[in-house]
Design brief:
seven-stranded parallel beta sheet, 9 helices, alpha/beta, globular
Length: 266
Amino acid sequence: MDMGLEGRTALVTGGDSGIGWHTARELLAEGATVVLTDLDEDALDAAARGLQAPPGRLVHHRADITSVEDLRALGHFVRETVGEIDILVHCAGITGAQGLFHEIDDEGWVRTLEVDLLGAVRVTREFLPDLRRGGWGRIVYLTSEDAVQPYDDELPYCAAKAGVLALAKGLSRSYATEELLVNTVSPAFIRTPMTDAMMSRRAEQRGTDVDEAIGSFLEEERPHLELRRRGRPEEVSAVVAFLCSQRASFVNGANYRVDAGSVATI
């Protein structure tokens, strides 16, 4: 299926692994030029090598999404290297502070919101002028099932992701007449470094192996995830790539759940 992405340029944050990396692979396969960014330069190098992109179609640049200065430098690099972007896919984020509400201090809240909500704001602010100039643009934010179904042991993350949903909906109204479409994708329990770390911690706390930790997590914490397994990152990136494409030309302000039914509502 031709997605109409030949010649488009995409920036993917959180691109050194997981959903971001698989999204880059999808976009490259559809003919787009991709810029990867993340925190770790070595991991970015490895990610770029793993994608095996055609010459000139993939570049990468380290940036901290909480730093305005880093994002300005990233913007300068992108415009000097590949030109203005047409697509922003924002995957970067952290689990953040965990525990019951009374156990999390201001520092835990601020750090989580700084990365997961204000990171999205700052990346968008830096690249919005590019996206508004072309008469065709896409923004896709990765949120989470937690945005609409909060869990009591990770409320800062839930609140931040709910904020991203509101941000996306607002932006989708502000710029639709300029053909800039803004949507979100909300995964649940995908096999990524973030959930790997969560399950390793759970296994250690319970004195079990990771497979048992995953099984008990599904049984006890995600009873509505009907497929009874972790999702694969490529199952999410396929939806992200669709929303980036010309095929999604009438999709705006939407939230696509990729959660195997984990959100227990219509």
